[in-house]
Design goal:
heterodimer; A: 91 residues; mainly beta; Folate-binding fold; four-stranded antiparallel beta sheet; two-stranded antiparallel ribbon; 9% helix; 37% strand; B: 417 residues; alpha/beta; eight-stranded mixed beta sheet; globular
Chain lengths: 91, 417
């Protein structure tokens, strides 16, 4: 349980948000040319990092906007929040 | 058996105030090389080592555990055992485990306190009724005992349930698997550890794996906090940390690790003599032999390795419990904890070899791995020893995410994931 600083609404309880999983997974440009292995990689394989992870969140019970977040999954500490389309502030 | 437990050994040791019991397993230093190494000393890992030694005659093996055995999800679950899964592959897998459970205490000469008190799944809406009836039929076609209960029969089987039609999620019926039940989770780890140790397996605790050494596409050994250990076969049974180990070998897995919570109440006199699960409102409850209510809550919706979990998840579960069992309204909860569960996209496990020679994974058990412990160990041992899956775990290979032949138990498995 933690507080999330929504880039549009400010700090709110995590229970107002829903997590959309790993961020920056780019949809294949030419889906018809993908092999089964590449599809599996895109659809199912995840980094599932213990440590700094980039992920998408949605302020479901608030402004309902999507944004990105950098969070340490080993202690739930949030390092940065940034809007969709913006570059991650941390490498 | 060098130190067989029996009524006679109990009496004999009573004369010496129970101070002379022998240690049930040793505390060896790792050797330089093993025939096989199991990463993860939980129930599944220890069972794997036990069956490798017992059925496949591999005695020169080690189980590496970063903490203490049974200290991860084995000691954190709600101990429910059942096999009423929808799909044929899952039914085969989980019922294989249930059949081993039925004789496990005798086989291990260790009381795992397996209690076939039945597991009842409640239906709260029309879709639940249809899904659960369908699952009952599917179970019976697979030779798994399952019956449909009407609302009155639910009330008769577990009288403290509120079956009033005007609650928010009324009980419209339920299913019952009578062979299902619970077991003592710690005893499962300890029993397998004792059995494996006796056959020569080295159980090495406080030994964290730091890296996996590869030579091309063949594994060569593991870097650990106690130095490098050479081996040609590595079985990874690391539950929530499977992705972390996979990463060391340069492999990606279709897993997400999330906290799953459980809690227990203060102990009370016997009040519920079965296990009741409710998918729609996400509330599981049973009573331990100590008298505590054992309550299973849900997973958080985000990846986390914190072993904590969010308060709102527990709150939601307790709200549902209170509506279904008004009698519990004044009970106090004593302890709450979280375990990190590794969830597959299709909510089915992976018991599989990988494209790296000598590297095997047993993971993705998600929210329901405890029930499968003996079967999982048996089938994983078969897979490691023969480098081929057993027919019962063939469907649970890693390649199913490429072929698309998923075992989709999401929503079908009688629980919400």
């Amino acid at each position: 349980m933690f507080l999330i600083n929504c880039p549009y609404c400010g700090e709110r309880d995590q229970s107002e948000f829903s997590c959309g999983g790993e961020a920056h997974i780019v949809r294949p440009k030419q889906p018809t040319e993908l092999s089964d292995d590449q599809w599996a990689e895109y659809l199912f394989m995840r980094k599932n990092i213990k440590g700094i992870q980039f992920e998408r969140w949605n302020h479901a019970h608030g402004c309902r906007k999507w944004f990105n977040m950098v969070r340490d999954t080993s202690n739930d500490k949030i390092h940065a929040v940034y809007k969709m389309g913006e570059k991650p502030p941390i490498e | 058996m060098k130190n067989k437990y029996s009524i006679f050994s109990l009496i004999k040791n009573a004369f010496s105030q129970h101070e002379n019991w022998k240690q049930a397993w040793g505390d060896p230093e790792p050797k330089r090389e093993y025939e096989a190494i199991i990463i993860g000393g939980g129930g599944h890992g220890l069972a794997t080592a036990y069956y490798l030694a017992k059925k496949h005659n591999m005695r020169n093996i080690a189980v590496l555990e970063k903490g203490w055995i049974g200290g991860g999800n084995t000691g954190r679950n709600t101990t429910i055992i059942r096999s009423n899964y929808l799909w044929d592959a899952s039914a085969g897998l989980y019922d294989h485990a249930l059949k081993i459970w039925e004789n496990l205490s005798q086989e291990l000469n260790y009381n795992v306190m397996f209690s076939q008190r039945g597991v009842m799944n409640l239906a709260h809406n029309l879709q639940d009724v249809r899904d659960l009836k369908r699952r009952t039929h599917a179970n019976r076609l697979n030779g798994i005992d399952a019956v449909w209960l009407s609302t009155n029969q639910v009330k008769e089987f577990c009288p403290i349930i509120n079956t009033s039609p005007d609650i928010r999620y009324p009980v419209l019926g339920g299913t019952l698997q009578r062979r299902a039940g619970t077991a003592r989770h710690d005893a499962v780890a300890w029993g397998y550890a004792r059995g494996a140790d006796e056959m020569g397996v080295d159980i090495i605790q406080n030994c964290e794996v730091k890296g996996i050494k590869r030579n091309g596409d063949q594994v060569e050994g593991v870097e650990t906090s106690k130095g490098f250990i050479k081996t040609k076969k590595i079985g990874v049974v690391a539950a929530g940390h499977s992705s972390v180990i996979a990463n060391m070998a340069g492999l990606r897995l279709p897993l997400e690790s999330k906290p799953l919570q459980a809690l227990v109440s203060e102990p009370v006199k016997p009040i519920i003599d079965t296990v009741v699960m409710s998918n729609a409102v996400h509330a599981y409850v049973s009573q331990s032999d100590k008298g505590e209510l054992v309550i299973g809550a849900g997973t958080d919706a985000y990846v986390s390795y914190t072993q904590r979990g969010s308060h709102d998840v527990v709150e939601g579960t307790l709200k549902a419990i209170l509506e279904l069992y008004p009698i519990f309204s004044r009970m106090k909860m004593l302890r709450q904890w979280g375990g990190i569960v590794d969830i597959c996209p299709d909510a089915s496990p992976i018991i599989s070899k990988t494209n790296i020679k000598g590297l095997y994974f047993n993971c993705g058990w998600g929210t329901g791995g405890f029930k499968a412990t003996p079967g999982s160990g048996d089938l994983f041992a078969h897979t490691i020893a023969n480098n081929e899956p057993h027919e019962l775990n063939a469907a649970f290979n890693l390649n199913r995410f490429v072929s698309g032949d998923l075992v989709d138990e999401h929503g079908a498995a009688a629980v919400a994931h």
